[in-house]
Queue: 3 jobs
Job 1
Amino acid sequence: MAKQKISPFRLSSLLRLQKDPNLALQLFLNPNPDPNPKPFRYSLLSYDLIITKLGRAKMFDQMEQIVEQMKVETRFVPTEIIFCNIITFYGRARLPDRALNTFDQIPSFRCQRTAKSVNTLLNALLSCREFERMREVFVGMGRFAAPDVCTYNILMNASCLRDDVGGAWKVFDEMRKRGIRPNAVTFGTLIKVLCENNKLEEAFRVKEDMGRDFRVKPNTFVYASLMKGLYKANEFDLAFKLKNEMLERKIELDSRVYSTLISALFKAGRKGDVIGVLEEMKENGCKPDTVTYNALIHGYCQEKNFEAAFGVLSELEKEFKPDVTSYNVIIGGFCKEGKLREANELFEDMPRRKCAPDVVTYRTLFDGLCDGMQLKEAAPILDEMVFKGYSPRTESIMKFIDELCQGGNLKLLWTVLNSLAKGNLIDVVTWRIVVPLVCQNNKLLNASELVQTLLMP
């Protein structure tokens, strides 16, 4: 019996169900295997589904092939949201050139660009920290659409990431001149950048203005930012007053707020009050999450109570999958206290706990081993770090190499230089430290071999 052919509608259903992007691609390209296939009438939904699956899987070359195929379709005009999704994928992957190219290509698909695609592009460039390109896109935005509140919120966020208080105020003032009404996101971002730059009086003034002059109620994000600013300034009592204000105004307290309060209590030496905050969380229906547990772990590490920190980690493992921050905090605490064996043991145990070390993990352990003069133990950590594509801090490498040179540990120095060369991490400063040793120490392995190592791409 002949197999029933897949219709365009059925293809969309099958694509939606297929979890494997490679199998989904094969299905899309060849829905009805036939020696003499007729052109398949793809639907816009099918294109949308396969592009989304490939983009999420970072299969960008394959995704672009599908996009090119869509360009020749004549039965429909692709919607702007498809291109917005593609731009977002490129932004998350830190590929600003591809994001810009996609935006430029939109008219070739007979699709009009609006504020939606411009804002998506600005947000993608923000993810890539391409601030100058953001400015260029914004300046030329008038060719496509007028900026809206979302546009200015993205620009405000850029100022926040650069700790540019003046730039944030400039964005806010320009909004008002254009008659664009700020919303809760605008005020929240402005207050955040003010708090991060210790301008608490201005931040509280903005909080009052947003309610009185703009009829915008402060939300959880605003309160969380203010609390973090107060915590940073050691104004713990004011932070708790803000928490009570939230309760009075029936504003939902989330884990960010409670985690900030927990950190404040530890910093103020009031760890005995932490239990009360956790109980209040549960009474208010706010379940502790990874952020809360990490605040507890950090607090106990500051207290040098590593047994308690591990106890929290064990509790976390029962409820959630601990994120890498949980381990980084404990490893950092161990290194700070010179407990390098314990730090290395936890590092080696992370894969068993189903949590992969990240660049912070490697840097923290490597720096700790170097500070503790455990240079032999630091060398394989450096080699593994470079192998995984992570870069150590420049100052850490310089200190490491300098210690090896001062101690005359030439064999280990050679090993380290080879590791650095593999990652193309040898620069002119390394030359300045190592070359004098080549000239002065006859015991060094063949100097020409060392120079060759330094020149490796």
Note: The radius of gyration is 28 Å.
Job 2
Amino acid sequence: MFCSCSVMTGFAQPPVNYDEAKVGVYQLPPLLITNSKTKVRSSSDWDHTRRKEVLQLFKENMYGQFPGPDAEMHVVMQKIDSSAIDGLAISKQVRIYLSKGENGPYIDLLLYIPANTTQPVPVFTSLNFQGNHNISMDENILISQHYLDFLKFKKADASPTRGVQERRWPVKALIEHGYGLATAYYGDLEQDHADGWETGIRTSLAHQLHIKPADWSAIGAWAWGLSRILDYLQTDKNVAATKVIVMGHSRLGKTALWAGANDPRFAAVISNNSGEGGAALTRRNYGETLSIITKAFPHWFISKYQSYQDDVNTLPMDQHMLLALAAPRPLYVASATNDKWADPYGEFLGAKNAEQVYALFNKKGLGTDQMPAPDMPVGNTIRYHIRTGDHDVLLFDWMQYIKFGDELVK
């Protein structure tokens, strides 16, 4: 099994700080001051001026550009099972082609919808790490060819497996609470290694999308794929088109945040254990740092981001600004007690410092300045919890997201 966390391997790792007293002094870039040094005083000021500036900062310095819609996208229904999950769900397996014909890049989408409703339902959408066939033991799920290709690249056992990450995907619980689930393998878009861009969409769609591979990143490619999944979901009669929630864990939590920042059609944004480069404040010297992550996973970001390794305080933005780009939509940030590498307190502070934008829309944030106790969620339109346990996404996390959706999206 391959780890989905961003722990650095294969590199001489510098000393990692886990002492709050040694985090250092830092000052966050102002969120509500425009490039022309004027104060943002209203939601209109944010929407029409400052939001565009903040989004551009992340495009220029971190994740790269975000192409527009794919005019050549088309879909083929591969398989429908009307009695999935013990008859509770309908499953659809849809191939989303990203270019003309059927020889180019594609996303294989697995969609579960409750079987006992005639009304469109809200849907959680999230990329997965090991192929659709690994989220369930369901024999009807097609084996991911892109994942098998990745195993061969890694010189690992390429025999097909099922359900390896089933515990991360409580499909039955989601269905029973009236939600659908849409997921796809992130390697359909770009394989997660330094040379993945060579065979991923950053190369295969470069001419079509009018963007050079170096002008965006792996996280950008994965996030763009989430928007293409949303394009399809908005055409599916079983899906409530305005109630699609984007969620991601670890590096895919970073991806969900970037997708939500660029695509306002997502009804809500959820970051699970996204850490450095996600919800955690970059300027905090705690756990994984900008220097560590850009050395270990340079392909996740554009090359400009590496230039801040020696002095993170020169970075013109920080991650509270990324979280603020979700406003005024509901935002959930989650951490885990044993996941010090991801800096849980830094994730909490990221969410806390995004509140000032939500206030412009008269939306309430966390409602506290204090880190909550484990397993005690806090917040309103912005929510946060730190779950007891490790870097993972578990049923406890999903149950909070379901409650979040029930109150703010449904």
Note: Residues 43-61 form the longest helix (19 residues).
Job 3
Amino acid sequence: MEKALAVLRPPPDLTISDWADANRRLSSEASAEPGQWRTSRAEYQRGIMEAISDAGVESVVIMSSAQVGKTEVVNNAVGYHIDQDPAPIMVVMPTERDAETWSKDRFSPMARDTPCLQNKIANPKSRDGNNKILHKRFPGGHLTIVGANAPSGLASRPIRLLLCDEVDRYPFSAGAEGDPIVPHCVV
């Protein structure tokens, strides 16, 4: 009964950066500096995460140079929502191969090494189908990971949080379906 009520409880007044500073662990295989996440190491990320946390903000667009932590912002947003504000989430990468790589190399180590996420996502070795490479279920929501080049992955999905990474590498069109991100939220 407590688990059912937890899903109905409103999310705490906590921003994504607050959550990351308190909970996120950087994995040795996904970070040059493994251990506790500290937003203060890249302070400019705080404003981005706070904007994503703000219910009054519909879209956040980031235009920046490469390798400044945008994917880590995506990771923190996903981790926060799995832990604090469960919802249907979609992460869009340029290709299906990129989606698989992010799932295996970035998301899975984060979920494994961040204690508050460990028991919320099914064990990938279980046979119940709740934790696949491109689709993961957790209490109150799910995470779908797709490539922008795969129109079937982008269609007909009830998504509350859409996070698009490496948008400059997306194909001009997802086949006959048109632009893979317009009019969606972009990170």
Note: Confidence is low (pLDDT under 50) at residues 183-187.
